[in-house]
Amino acid sequence: MDLELSSEDFRAARATISGLVHRTPLLSSRTLGARTGLSVWLKAENLQKTGSFKPRGAFNKIHRLAPSERVRGVITASAGNHGQAVAYVAAHEGIPGFVVMPAGANPGKVAAVKEYGAQAILHGRLWDDAFARSQELAREKGLVYVHPFKDRDILSGQGTVSFEIVEELPDVEAVLVPIGGGGLIAGMAMALRIVKPGTRIIGVEPDGSANMGASRQAGRAVDLAEVTTIADGLATKRTDPEVFELINRLVDDLVSVSDNEILLGVRFLLERAKLLAEPAGAATVAALLTGKASLRPGTRVVAVVSGGNFDISGRLRFNY
To answer: Is 109 a catalytic residue?
Structure first.
């Protein structure tokens, strides 16, 4: 599959999703800037519909389906946020939706999928397990598959985040993006190389799920033997080769942060920015707070806060 996108692809995506998703705010953070020596803005995708950036790609994919595809219904695999987006968009478009999620998925995300009207199917321990089952069900039921990252419409939808950033901060010098499956950073990176080619792009992964970093070191897409991280939205052990090739070519740096560092980011956003971010969404802020982003002083940097669907029932504990 050719995943390379053009300016026309992104223009079409913006037109498709206009009025269907929020143009999320770009918020300056003087406190984070003072702590890091940088000029910092936060792209608050945690305030997007369904609580993450995911409806951008989901609307761009599902809204374009032909009538013959719509009547079949859609299916996907998700740790939570993509599933919520697909469920929400399917309901908006009046078509059946199915979401396969890991058995240990965030209960709030599972509940949201059901509340949006989709059928939530729990299977396996990781996203990779749910993905395998979802593909089986797609074949058995004749459903249209909505892949969370290996899809041109999904990638061009996610890339619209970059256009909003550059329009509001034309002199942006660096952008930090969390990495799970890689759809957000791949789409954003392709868009940034079109609209603001000199921007430094930094991907952030959890230490316990750093498959893009491991793949870059190996020079090829590799699978992790094990995945352990509080950031359920970033917990994937398998890197798609084509998506990896895009990221490896377009992204300048890959860094990883520990779970405790991610919780530092969650706490900072709550206390100082008044934003609730789930661990996946706070990973970029963690990379700034720890200095792992390695940017020169004064750099104008945007940290993408990718989601805010944090299950706070007994899980929000700061171990420091």
So the answer is: no
